[in-house]
Amino acid sequence: MKISLGRQSILLLGVNGLFVLAGALSGTFLNVYLWKSRPDYAMLGWFTISQQIALGLTFWLAGKWVKEHNKMSALRLGTGLSGVFYMLVLWAGPRAVDWIWPLGILFGCALGLFWIAFNVVYFEVTDRENRDLFNGWVGLLGSMTGIIGPWFSGLIISRMADNTGYRLIFTVSLVIYVIAVVFSFFLKKREVSGTYRWSEPWRQLSVKDSPWRPLGMGLFAQGVREGVFAFLIALLVYIATKQEYKLGQFSLITSAVALVSYWAAGKWFKPQYRSRGMLAGAILLFIVLIPLLWKVSYGTLLIMGIGSALSMPLYILPMISAGFDLMGTSGENVEKRVELVVLRELCLMVGRLFGLAVFILTVMNGPSLQTLTWLIVALGAFPLIGWIFMRKMLVHPDQQKPSA
């Protein structure tokens, strides 16, 4: 039987693609922009922590609006606030480093509103049969925007004097966010049902033998790695090369590889391969970090980037699909899908905050590059821990009966 996506799924992919493109254009260089104003690892760590705290709390608080009122309003507001964030960064200029916490909180709220709405609508417009296909397309679009966005931004920034290039790119992102808001009006207003249960995430995790416990630990482990890697790797590429163009080139190459790997995963990766695929991906994600122990250079970072791009679909697709499949195992879980999306994000948030806390404690006393490298390798081992917790629930996915 041929698996395909419906019109609403395709429209949702389009909105997601525009949102990710705007982030790829500016987000890749945002931390470099702040670093050039104040070269301080801890400052960037606190900026990321402020985002994560706001993102997690927004997921939890906005869950009530998404479940009982209008999901599309949350999605549009999140997109619009992302544009406002870059508008404020443009206004503040180099003084943005003095407003790390309010800017981080604003950006975290924007991301939280967008992603809780996106994740809930994504669950509603897909089912168990086409969920891996949809995830593959999300990864594919993310890789395509990762090819175009950072390379274009790096080229523009490197060819323009002072911070003129940064201001232009941030402005372009602002315009794309506006276009994404307009595009979102083509999505149908989703039906709402039920009452939001504020304590549901904690209740699920407190139940003995709940499948959300191992999944929650797997998400925590994922968050530990990505909380730091999300900003530090790009920054290390810039520090190693001192060229924004090289950072854009790095993103172009790694995203091109990811495009192929996500396309292949979307086409051939099936539920029965999830456990072995996730283990293989976790092992490879760790192995590609080893060259950094010898030398942190553009070459070794590129090896790590290419290896991660090849391995990540094997690891991340089972993680995402297993979580959303778990939401569809019963009519009761489908009814609580908003709360379960919140649970998923809170587990990721706690993991990211843990990783970032370790990072800040490491860099507070002016660490050497060697210390940072060992930290990267240590955090890079956490996907293996995630697989250990999730391996049993991935072995027999057909035992989970679909109801969505």
Please specify the SSE layout and strand pairing.
Elements: H1 7-37, H2 41-68, H3 71-92, H4 100-125, H5 131-159, H6 164-184, H7 200-206, H8 212-241, H9 244-268, H10 274-287, H11 298-327, H12 331-335, H13 337-363, H14 369-379, H15 382-395
Model regions low in confidence, pLDDT < 50 over at least 5 residues? 399-404
CATH architecture: Up-down Bundle
Rg over CA atoms: 20 Å
Q: In percent, how helical is the residue content?
A: over 70%
- SSE order, one letter for each helix or strand: HHHHHHHHHHHHHHH
| The CATH class | Mainly Alpha
Number of strands: 0
Question: Can you give a write-up of this model?
Answer:
This protein is an all-alpha fold. The protein has a single domain (7-185, 200-398), classed as Growth Hormone, Chain: A. The protein is 79% helix and 0% strand. 51% of the residues are buried. The model is unreliable at 399-404 (pLDDT under 50).
Summarize, please.
The protein is mainly α and 404 residues long. Helices cover 79% and strands 0% of the residues. The chain has a single domain, classed as MFS general substrate transporter like domains (Growth Hormone, Chain: A, Up-down Bundle).
What are the defining features of this structure?
mainly alpha; 404 residues; Growth Hormone, Chain: A
